[in-house]
Amino acid sequence: MSENIPKQEQEHMPAGEYTILAGPTSQFAHASQFEINNFTFQAAHIINTTIVNNPLEKETIPSGYQEGMSNITSQHCPPDFIGRQDLISSLEMHFIKGTPSAAQHKQKVYLLWGLGGSGKTQTALEFAFQFEDQFTKIWMIHAASESLIQASFYDISREINRPQPTWLSGKRWLEAQKEEWLLIYDNADNPELNLGKFLPSCRHGNVIITSRNAALILLTRSPSGSNTEVKDMDYKDAVQLLLNCAGMSHNSSLEDQDMAGDIAQTLHCFPLALVQAGGYIQQQDCLHGYLERFNSQRAQIMSIDISQSFDDYTLSIYSTWNLSWNKLNSSAQEFLKICSYMHFENIPREVFQRAVQNLEKVGQVHPGPLFDQVVVFLDKLFSNSSQWNDIEMDAIITELKNFSLINVLQGGKTYNIHPLVHQWVFDGIQCQRDVITAFLAVSLQEISENEMPFILQVQEHCKFVNALECNEVFVWEAFGELWSLTGNYKKALEVVEALVRTSEEAQGKHHPDTLIYTQKLGLVYGHLGRYSDALELEEPLLRLSEQALGKKHPITLVRTLNLAITYAHLGRDKDALELQEPLIKVVEQVLGKKHPITLIQKQNLAMIYKHLGRYKDAFTLEEPLLKLSEQLLGKEHPDTLARALNLAGTYSNLGQHKDALELQEPLLELSKQILGKENHNTLGQTQNLAMSYKHLGRYKDALELEETLVKLSKEVLGKEHPDTFTRMLNLAGTYSHLGKHKDALELQEILSKLFDQLLGKEHPNTLSNMQNLALTFRHLGQYKDAVELEEPLLELSKQVLGKEHPDTLARTLNLAGSYSNLGQYKDALELQEPLSKLFEQVLGKEHPNTLTQNQTLAMIYRYLGRYKDALELEEPLLKLSEQVLGKKHPDTLARTLNLAGSYSNLGQYKDALELQEPLSKLFEQVLGKEHPNTLTQIQNLALTYGDLGRYKDALELEEPLLILSEKVLGKEHPDTLARALNLAETYSHLGQHKVALHLQEPLSKLFEQVLGKEHPITLTQTQNLAVTYKHLGRYKDVLELEETLLTLSEQVLGKEHPDTFARAQNLAITRNRLK
């Protein structure tokens, strides 16, 4: 908060101080020891007599003296002191709880330092009033100047009734009093004041100093010294202080308190600002209108002095700091002006150093009026603007530290300024924004990816300026490079477009500079997902380059490389490959194997191989490429990070998800540190890590990453950027894995239209979205909708990617799954059986997709009643899944569940039960109670209980399961219908046939509507209803159902299917009964 400064302050030389000049030391040369001692005694007597009898020493009143000024009880502290308990506790620990100063023969000193208005004085006084009884006496020493310090000691001398009061006699008396007195040296702000000589010279006593001057920390370096920077208040205390000062501490509503909280946060919980705001609010009765006034007229409202104050401190916060400003040298003032146009935190010292070091180079290439203004600006900072001087920079920082206007971090590499100080400088001292922008541009000259730590620091400060306001090429070039390197392509686009436009007008379309800017513009378009716009630039640019420079010129090679990448982004992988493959040898011959462009070429070729499903070829390139990149560029270089990211992606493509994860988790943290959270490579790394989590069944971990990633991608790249679409697509997939199929559907249906419009129907990402949408339809039981999407999708995938592309194989597998869901098992089998060999050839036996293919084939065998064939696949498959994915992976759990189902189909119910019972807890732990797969596991366990005759145990599971299924999936979902069917059957087994019938009769119509008359599950429902009719003696109804049912079963499943055989037997029994 405020500090107390008495009025009538004047400085003068200390009274009563003299220099005693000793005579020549030669007079002692032949003297005896007795003579020397006698001479010393006489000299001491003369000196003492001179000092005591000196007329000046008798009654000299120091300037600024006021009677009682040192008396602590005369000092004003707000009666409702708020907060600062941490500081009070620190002072208590230092002075009260330790050994007393006199006992340990050490004077205790504590410095409270910080900005003017931070509440240093009030904290010291509050401590003094709380613990007054712990000290023999407490005095206030006003320390704004030497004369006021002397005046304070003079007042002490008068209070203790010295016969001839002087300031020195007051100080000496304290030095002689071996007691626990406390002196508070208040407002010792003047950096030129040597405060140390005014501290009592003794080994006892207690001293608190309040100051803006952080250099006084030197006085607390001994073990008996300590110091604390007085910073902003805690939020709750700040709100209470504001309400107190506004006269609303006892009558504020919750709405008032929320508004007070908003004001406190806006004022950064700074004490004097809160007191000032509270006073204004009380006068104008405007709590709810204060922020509007503050935001529109900040400088004016922060400059209004306080009319009423508890402590006679009436200066506004801006007026308080203006006192400090007026004492600063011009170089320190200029430094603050620059900083006011930057962010208030982490201001890099390197910005100033680079500006000075780059000045001469920029002036040679880009002279002009704006550049000249930058030179003038730097001349105000440093004696020689073209030569960096650490000593001069240190002097500026030291001066600002002396007034607590700046904090130094990271060993002097960065600086922080309090947000309100930052606002104060900006509001009070307006500069030419274009000069500051040009200054930053000079600092940014020739930045590269090798300097990412500096680039990431400085980008935050460059967000507050607009490069387009400066009509200077060197400014546009610098900011274009900055925004490109940090992945802020929207801002880069504005600047690079301006460069191209200006260069075309001034030098023509074919000038080398124009072509370079055009090349950069093509890259920016590519990063923004505007691949068609990039293509329009890059194709003619490559032709021009080949004509003017030749096909093997490095610039031509780079442009060929860029065009190939654009082709790949447009889904034209074959065109990209035609450009890329021949380039490898040419690039190596022209530039060498270790040239950065050669490395980029190999990485891009590997990416195209991946797009074409040639994962092994990609891996063959990427593994040695990463090692070479680490050797040449270092492990933390952005290109090396990108290559590690790509290799991890290839591991995933090859099904080596654990290997991928080992690379990705440390990579993400490194990428955030080096490139920043918003960099496009960091976003890509986050997505890949999320994909690995999904492959490993860690869907919740994936979701945490992806939801944040989609928001960030929309902010950084825009809602319609292809990468944003891809991330939304992946998020929808995660929702499906977690059983949130409706959330997935909402995203996917929106994406379908967007993908078609922006990328085209044949783009790989469009095909992926169609597939994911079809999978969601399947999860929601909309099997016909899924097939309607998947059949044309498979044909399109074969045309665009080829029959053996991994994505085409996966789509074939998915279509087979949809056929199975519709009960078209023979159609599914026709697709599935040939796939097994293809999956093994293309992906390998242990690839997760190969395992899925085997599982799906086993499921079809089961549906077709080929239980032994299913078992032959599922037993080794489960072992392989445990090895490759782990026992708790959701896919492994599902395969355990399926194997148990096959055991049940074969009548091996105990074997099934051994697998199923431990699964229940695992499913809940891994997927959650409401996940569709968990519900399936409970249903299967209930069925096994039924097969074993444990109908009551089955009922205990099935009744709550049906309620949960209706809630999670809906009443008409096929799985819910199947569960209602199973529950009805359990009621029948328990003899509750009427209850069973009540469930079954409405189910018949629902099954026919949802799945169709010929679906296997519809046939099972009809069979179960017939059984219930039998139990109730309604044999005619049974006969009608069973005759139709047998005919359908023979058509759909075949005469040799076990279910068909059982239905024929049931019909024969019914006919016998009716005879």
From TrEMBL:
NCBIfam families, per database record: FxSxx_TPR
* Full protein name: TPR-like protein
